[in-house]
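INFO worker-7 received task bundle
INFO bundle size: 2
INFO processing item 0
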Amino acid sequence: MSEQHPRPIIWAHRPFHFPEDVSEMPSQMLHLKTFPSHLALTLREISKDKLTTRQDGKWSIQEHLGHLIDLEDLPTLRVKEILQGKDTLTPADMSNKNTWDKNYNEKNLYGLCESFIERRNKLVKLLAGFSDSQLLKWTYHERLHRNMSILDLTYFQCQHDHYHHEMIMHLASS
């Protein structure tokens, strides 16, 4: 990690290229299933000081992991909202107050990684049972100003993982 990893585009400003059809679902499911373990292996190689150091008042690496844990329930809730035919999806708390308040830098890294793996496995199990027609059901996402299907939410979750992985790699190389 000696080379500086670039800082990613701010999450709220990222462009998204949502999938056209369900043929992309298997690769998204593979990502969702394997990402937490891959991240845990990456984090094991980073010193405790680097894991818990905030730079410029922003989250530490370990707080990025905590944030991923905090948001694991949101896609499950949104999937249920789509299946129930709700008008709009529950918005994310863009202030991320929960992550700031939980003091993740004081928590055990291995416990956090296990929690992320367990919570993600619940999401993977939920998503694995859907038919193609269910994957294409949708509800309106207010922040993005578009309808989002379960397939889109799966892609969105993968992109969220990628963003935080990029941030972690940037911080680790700083």
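INFO item 0 finished
INFO processing item 1
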Amino acid sequence: MTHQAWFELSLSGLPRAAGTATRQRPSLSRSGGRVLAVSVAVGFALGNLACGQSTRTIAPSGLTYSTNPAVYPVGVAIAPNTPSSGGGAVASYSVSPTLPAGLSLSTSTGVITGTPTTGTAAANYTVTATNSTGSTTASLSITIGLPALVWDTGNWTTSNWQ
């Protein structure tokens, strides 16, 4: 024959502010009135702890871009170059030095879009993803080339060189 006993464990006096700690001695009671004394030490040392829940923020990590290195033609809208990262959520993005003329970085999503207006040699750009805890960077190589000239049935035309 199997016996089942129901127990209730209760804690009171949990920390109400971040950075506080407490020790509790909860009581364990069994239905039927018999009380057993149980000693359990509960300590909280996490930085953002309130009412028993942790809301700890971690820094973003491992920033990469979908196209790297990137080679774009002058005068042609580029496909969005999208970032990805691990770790915590990114709050904002920045780039240094400034992207080539016609390209822009969304500071909220990190996506690079636009239509390049001037040819440039290959150059490295450092994109930084940041949140309240820290940041991570990616080195992005971008080249802006001129469209190729193509002989098409007796006429010179430009192609979308990439």
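INFO item 1 finished
INFO post-check item 1: The radius of gyration is 29 Å.
INFO post-check item 1: The longest strand covers residues 120-130.
INFO worker-7 idle
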